[in-house]
Predict the structure.
Amino acid sequence: MLKEKLLDFSGHLTDLLPLEKTEISNLFEKPKNKDHGHTSLPVFRFSKTLKKAPPVLAKEVAEQIINKKIDGVKEVQAVGGFINITWTNGYILENFKEFINEEKLGYNDSGKGRKLIIDYSSPNVAKPMHVGHLRATIIGQAIRNLAQTQGFEVIGLNHLGDWGVQFGKLAWAYKKWGSEYDFKNDSFNSLYSLYVRFHKEVEEHPEYEKEGAAAFKRLEEGDEELHKIWKEFIDISMAQYQKTWDRLGVKHDLVKGESFYADPRKLDHVVDLLEKKELLEESEGAWVVHLDEKRPPCLIKKSDGASLYATRDIASALYRMQDLECDVNLYVVGSEQKLHFSQLFSVLEKMDYPWAKDCHHVAFGMYRFKNVGKMSSRKGQVIRLDDVLDKATEMVLERINSKNPDLKNKDDVAEIVGVGAVVFNDLLNDRVKDVEFDWEKVTDFEGDSGPYVQYSAVRCKSLLRKAKEKLKKDSFDFAVTLSEKAEIDLMNLMMDYPNILSNSYKTFKPNYLASFLLEVSRAFSSFYNKCPILSIEDKALMESRLALVSATLKVLEEGLKVLNITSPEEM
């Protein structure tokens, strides 16, 4: 039921329960059992105040609601400590029409006037984006999209890994062995091969480590030749990454690599601030900020005076929250960085920045592939992200060839469905958990998968195309009130879409939205199987059911769009 309607209904309950109507309306929830009505109000929190057992209180309040004869209420039942309410079919349809005709379906303005910055994807220059980057990339993009549905002004940030001693090593390797690789025709693979080679050579020639470190020191000091080489590495890498981001539909508004924060002026400013607040302490020649007994101190400067990851991240937080004037700062980074971000946010709190509480580490688990060991970029043992997308696309194409060999634009459809399958499979899982990657499950057209949701949308499109030819109409409306259970269940489910968007954003968990789209797809399948559409004689009923098909398509496509997935016209 629409939030505004629940608020109106709650106004009838203020004389029965000791809360304002706004507070009462926030208590309503969806019954776990569909047979228990359309919405449910738990009364446990009132039990102590009103000195009545929850089942007794629920029964009394239910009886009083019935006596009030409120418009739209069909049935009220007390079950344990819950009041279960069933709405009339006409009331549901009235609400549904209002919901589905919203200009921005499911959007709200809770974040209006606030700016959110989200750091996602952020690969390391010279290394291919591997399957581990998939989670950082698509979880980040989905949360970015979710934040926009809540009215935030959003900045998508690519915090590129483009600084550190490894670039001195790579530049030294490029000058020594670069001529042996085809940088003209295969620049990125040549760059990565050079990276792997350096680390193999070091095993026999450990002195190369010192050469690489010395080269990085010269790069830091402004060596023009090395700076030119380093910049070329970034350009080569970004061109390669952009191809992958384009396949995934991923966009960034701002690219600020680690090198941006490695500016001595920014780092010196961080150190000065920490010194003024008397937070810096010397420890074995290095400078640290002590936190508590449970966590090691946060290392700010090494004994040789060099800055560290934490120093640059403090500078980054200051830039995001002060220079860019953001209100919320999100870091979509793997769970293995939990300690780092715990230290970072604690240091910011110790620096007395009130906005530290609005900095969040959006952690995620790892991917697990059967028969594949731990990935290592240095050894060249990585599962490349593009290889995963390619394989998913190939598997989908095989299914299309076996089931619908005459389909036009098969390659394009396979790309849309294959990439969507990989994205949906990731987002369907709770981000904090590790994910086992099962190829058959990922590309299944009938299971809990992206292709199943996409196929539901495609089935809607097919029905609407056929109806347009049959009825010579471009759009359909609810000519009569729908009354079949499958119809009502589908409408009532879809009206939960705004709450799903809101909860997905608040928890930074896109899996709520992905699971919801699966529910809608199943409910649509039930409606499709139980309620004939194009074969019935009653034209008014046919049009109402087609309007419901059109509404289902809108919810599925809008929801998929938030997850950064599209649906083809045919499959």
